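Please, structure for the following, as tokens.
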Amino acid sequence: MTEALLDRARALPIWQGRVTFTPLDGGITNVNHLATDGRVRAVVRLGADIPVHQVMRFNELAASRAAHAAGISPAVLHSEPGLLVIEFIDGRTLAAEDVAQDAMLERVLDLVARAHRDMPAHLRGATLAFWVYHVIRDYGARLVAEGSPRAGLVPDLMAAAAVLEAATGPVDMVFGHNDLLPANLIDDGARLWLIDWDYAGWGSPLFDLGGLAANNGLSEAQELHMLEAYFGTPPDGGRLRAYRAMKCAAALRETLWSMVSETHSTLDFDFAAYTETNLVTFRAAMADFLQS
């Protein structure tokens, strides 16, 4: 399938000369290649819809275009079923230790806040909602129905999710990225870019903020500063509890995503190890939440 998609990509009308493709490392949802025709460099993302992860490419395309219009992401150069071609950004992909530096965290938070604030004006057509607790329940049901080796963990994880959803309470809607892994942030030396909008959708800003903390090992002091900077006021008890619930939910969603990927993904990646790492992160976050 990958070779067939690459053959289609080679024949796209956007190239002005012989195009070459080089695989890009790091993606754990799609297969990505760096394409160059001697004039332009672009990232070619290969992948159809992924129903088991609720990834719909029409939504990714709408979000990618809106993110570019808002100055958040590189331009979409071409799209068709199975192919998305995006401008290549020559920069450094961030790691968790980068994001956890105070100066970088300020830059990342500004980028996320601008995405939440500015992207809705540029969205066109149908887009998806992203409610993490629905995603969690769907993953849990799938693991049980398919007889996953992880199915025995599901009842306790779903019980935890129910506690977290009740603590989250009402939400203010934004159009979020919902996958704030450090690898989705690029520093080109002058500015930051936020890429990969597979899981974008309408939901709570606290999910992106909680994901930012859970995925990058932020300290409690950094989390409190992040909330005050984002909302413009120190968090009260209700908002802080809702945030902590969403932080746990972000870690749980990543854990379940990996559990499902263990049996559904064809990418060369150690999902079992990734599951174990995220399970530790979730359990630590949940223990902190229950003690707060």
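The first helix runs from residue 2 to 10. The chain has two domains: 2-87, 92-291.
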